[in-house]
Amino acid sequence: MAATARPVTPAAALTTSGAPTTKIHITVNGQLLSADVEPRTLLVYFLREVLGLTGTHVGCDTTNCGACTVHLDGRPVKSCTVLAVQANGRKVTTVEGLEVGGKLSPVQQAFYEEHGLQCGFCTPGMMMTATALLARNPNPSDAEVRDAIRGNLCRCTGYVNIVKAIKAAGKKMQETPPAGGGA
Amino acid sequence: MSAESPHVKGGIGQSILRKEDARFIRGKGNYVDDVKLPGMLYLDITRSPYAHAKITAIRTDKALKVPGVLAVITGKDLEAAGLAWMPTLMSDKQMVLPTDTVMYQAQEVAGVVADSRYAAADGAAAVEVDYEPLPVVTNPFKALEPGAPVIRTDRAEKSNHIWHWETGDKSGTDEAMTSAAVRVSQDLYIPRIHVSSMETCGCVAHMDAVSGRFTIWMTTQAPHAIRTVYALVTGLPEQNIRVISPDIGGGFGGKVPVYPGYVIASVASIKTGHPVKWIEDRSENLQADSFARDYHIHAEVGATKDGHVSALRVKTLADHGYTDAAANPSKFPAGLFHIITGSYPFAKAFVEVDAAYTNKPPGGIAYRCSFRVTEAVYTIERMMDILAHKLNVDPAELRLQNFIPPEAFPYRSALGWTYDSGNYAGALKKAMEIIDYAGLRREQAEKRAKGELMGIGISSFTEIVGAGPSQTFDILGIKMFDSAEVRIHPTGKVIARFGTKSQGQGHETTYAQILAEELGIPADDIRVEEGDTDTAPYGLGTYASRSTPTAGAAASMAARKIREKALHIAAHLLEVSPDDIEWKDYAFRVKGVPGKSKTMAEVAFAAYTNHPKGTEAGLEATDYYDPPNMTYPFGSYICVVDIDKETGQVKVRRFVAVDDCGTIINPMIVDGQIHGGLTMGFAPSLLEEIQYDEDGNVHGGTFMDYLVPTAVETPNWETAKTVTPSPHHPIGAKGVGESATVGAPPAIVNAVMDALRPYGVEHIDIPLHPWKVWQVLHGGGKSA
After folding, report:
1. What are phi and psi of B162, to 5 degrees?
2. B31, B198, B669 ranked by CB distance to A155: nearest
3. What CATH number has the domain bearing residue B348?
4. Model-level pTM greater than 0.90?
5. Minimal Cα distance from A120: which residue of B?
């Protein structure tokens, strides 16, 4: 596994001079990578600063807001409360991994069509949670959708159109099984 | 396009999908924390654990030994450069970093610059500060008592009183109140709340020592105003300052002020010669950025015995924290609080506000409604319900009986505003019909008989937005016009730039729609840009629902200037006199000759390839729009709540919002704005509050304690519209971003108080947490 990994160099942004590092191997959006990281490096900063995947946002640092939600082995996690070393040997999918072959995922498409976003800051995390929900329950009720996204705060939309978008995406996915989708 | 109904793709009134979403749904937005420059350093900030204390020593040696730390900046360093203090938007001053005293908990004390984000945080934790605690004042009433510790010893006036402001006819109101057959009065407290946009504040500051060019990417809703303030405060030449406001993750007013972190990062860049990034964390955001509300209101309403309102008298104490850093127009220290006569024809009104300093961070900033309109609307709409109760009439009937009638517009209020247009009864009747008001009242009577708690609440608000006419409205002297610059390229494609800055409102789409309508060019062919002071025309920014009323109007006016020039080019191309040409159905047409016409794209090509002799080439225009009046959006909201008698939990069962924002540019976006606004009206009504204990410790400094609504609590909003265009806006639009935040709280609180009617309690202050309601249910008490 390590032999095929593309090595990435942690940006200055994250390394403290002289601090001990740990080697990790991690598959991000389908690509196997290896890197030396300080053990305290949070997954979200590894994704943002080392890999430049800035679609995953930091909204609170305390696991409340969900802006940093990514998938770890298919399950949504808040990457501000996961250490990069905990993702060693595992698969991470970020918002950048939702689009497959230049085609928006059903969730992305539905957020666009149903006006499920305004400022866009919570959107990536919200879509990752929604994608995971629909993978296990493609036909959720309003209450099930609201319950599933309760760990993702949105300050702009009042959630109405987010709920609509997630249900619409579920419907679309049942009609045409998606090629990708990240979960 | 059919001949019967000519339209342009993406014109006004169409729910086209948003242009900006293409990047956001792919995770390709460009927010401040996404900006990365070569050699960039990171700033973290050491903050005070005390709300009021003397600083006796700051030791930086340990911090400087942390690997990666390059510099520590303290107030003393800034003092040498004359930057320890800076002006607020209200001509008060605020500390960038303290030289000797801290005045609120979490105040910035030192800035640590390092080569990594983590090292900067390590360094900030290693700065050692010795404090000598001072007496703390967090209650504004106590702050004004004789002998209270004076917080701002830097001022000549040795008291915590900041200003007194009043407006209206005092003696006339006193007389009318005395002679009123019916009088009601109530104390209402609107607590401190925080906008909590999902993106916190931050910047990347970069001083290029060689060119002298200072560039700052920052979370600001008003980039041009910031540039001018920076020039005035630092002495840097304004042409060398570039403020870039990239994608903004929600603003709601919290990104209007200049926070110390921006200035410390700027100084750090100048000091180190490197770009410096500062991104606050959520706790810093919730504990130290400016706050909204914190108004202690005493209101009295006088009426005739048959319920016609006659007099309104309001006395308010405003808690501004340690400095008056409110973002109000200069002439209005209490904002537009005097919209408080609302939708009703009070003959006499008088309002006075006193402001006090306390040991809290600056207050008076917006929460999706600046200028104190929310406070005003909450007051009058609560008072109308209290009056209805006193008179024992239905609150809907009382409102319908009193509304300013449609034929009275333009209507001049007792406190001096000239309302542009309205049909208040129309909106309320529509809401009553949608929700089946009569049916709900019947259901409530049945439930009440069974001992169940159900309440119905109404709010019929009138807003005042679109600041504003330059005669009256300025911020730090800069007049509150706004701008649009529109260029049509030879192939008929458009780039348009604005002095405002979207934070999620969708300007890239709605401005394009206004231009599409005015120019006959599809919205897809129009690119909208904002937020770069090097390229955009000067404007005062986006807040207070002003973008559509000001910059949106400027878009129309610039387009019309272009049309005027284009008409001459069309006449030249069609070889007729300009007098024979008319702009009709999105093209220049020869009057009375069907089929003889030129599109704007054809004219645009000619403007660069074949322009008439004696005229200038090119096709572009700029407009600085100075609105002749404010706009007055309005609406009626009806809320139905059920209360759990065991827990005191309030559940919003239904909420119908009928809004009237004049002409609707994009119905989908308007609904989105209403949904979000309603949620930010719901939040402080039932959940959010920033509290301080008597030592000035902030409670609610994380999302664990500060309860931003999740999808589970948030009701499923039902929306509808009436359309009463503004007579003075070029397209009749009024602005809509904040209506719902303003209108929702009294509807919710009125519903809860209506449900609690059997318990004999007239008012409970927001947020209506279950424990407060439970106290009423178990053991009464006049109010919690």
Report:
1. -95, -55
2. B198
3. 3.30.365.10
4. yes
5. B24
CB–CB contact B117 A62 (8 Å):
no
| Among B241, B194, B256, B200, CA closest to B31 | B200
CA dist., res. B539 & res. B375, Å (int): 27
For B34-54, letters b (16+ CB in 10 Å) and e give: bbeeeebbbbbbbbbebbbbe
Let me know whether B296 and B263 are in one domain: no
Distance from CA of B310 to the nearest CA of A (A): 38
B chain contacts of residue A15, beta-carbon cutoff 8 Å: 116
- DSSP code for A57: -
Q: Is residue B300 part of a domain?
A: yes
B349, B313 in Cβ contact below 8 A? yes
Q: How many CB pairs under 8 A join A and B?
A: 199
Number of domains in chain A: 2
For B230-243, the pLDDT digits (tens) are 999 889 999 999 99
Full domain range(s) for residue A149 = 106-175
Q: Indicate if B506 and B444 belong to the same structural domain.
A: no
How many domains does chain B contain in total?
A: 3
Q: Same structural domain for residues B268 and B364?
A: no
Structural domain span for residue B502: 21-28+482-625
Are A75 and A28 part of one and the same domain?
yes
Among A118, A123, A127, pick the best mutation site for testing chain B contact (most B Cβ within 10 A). A118
For residues B493-512, give the mean pLDDT. Answer: 98
- Distance (Å, whole) CA A52 – CA B386: 57
Query: CB–CB of A116/B24 below 8 Å?
Result: no
CA distance A97 to A86: 20
Q: What average pLDDT score do residues B296-305 get?
A: 98
Q: Specify if B2 maps to a domain.
A: no
Contact B18/B506 with Cβ under 8 angstroms?
Answer: yes
| CATH number (domain holding residue B208) | 3.90.1170.50
Q: How do residues B5-61 score in pLDDT, each as one tens digit?
A: 788 999 999 999 999 999 999 999 999 999 999 999 999 999 999 999 999 999 999
The pLDDT assigned to B680 comes to 98
Count of CB atoms within 10 A of residue B377's CB? 29
Asked if B119 and B41 count as a contact pair (C-beta separation under 8 A), the reply is: no
Residue A3 Cα, gap to closest chain B Cα (Å):
30
- Whether residue A61 and residue B281 make contact (CB cut-off 8 A), yes or no, is yes
pLDDT, mean of residues B279-307: 96
Please compute the mean of the pLDDT values over residues A151-164 and round it to a whole number. Answer: 98
Tell me the percentage of chain B whose pLDDT exceeds 70: 99
Q: B361, B330, B325: which is closest to B92 by C-alpha?
A: B325
Residue B345 CB coordination number (10 Å): 17
Q: B599's torsion region: left (phi>0), alpha (psi -120 to 50) or beta?
A: beta
- Using CB atoms within 10 Å of the CB of residue A3, give its burial: 0 to 12 exposed, 13 to 18 middle, 19+ buried: exposed
| Amino acid letter, B673 | Q
Q: pLDDT at residue A1 above 80?
A: no
* Residues of B classed as catalytic: 221, 368-369, 738
ipTM value > 0.90: yes
Burial per residue of B197-222, b for 16 or more beta-carbon CB atoms within 10 angstroms, e otherwise: bbbbbbbbbbbeeeeeebbbbbbbbb
Confidence of residue A181 (pLDDT cuts 50, 70, 90): very low
The torsion defined by the Cα of B758, B764, B769 and B771, in degrees rounded to 10, comes to -60
Q: Which of A97, A131, A156 is the last residue of a domain?
A: A97
Is B501 within a domain? yes
Shortest Cα distance, chain A CAs vs residue B63, angstroms: 14
- B394 lies in the same domain as B489: no
Q: How many helices and strands (H and E) does chain B possess?
A: 20, 34
Evaluate whether B363 touches B442 at the Cβ level (below 8 Å): no
Residue B275 near residue B206 (C-beta atoms within 8 A): yes
Radius of gyration of chain B (CA): 27
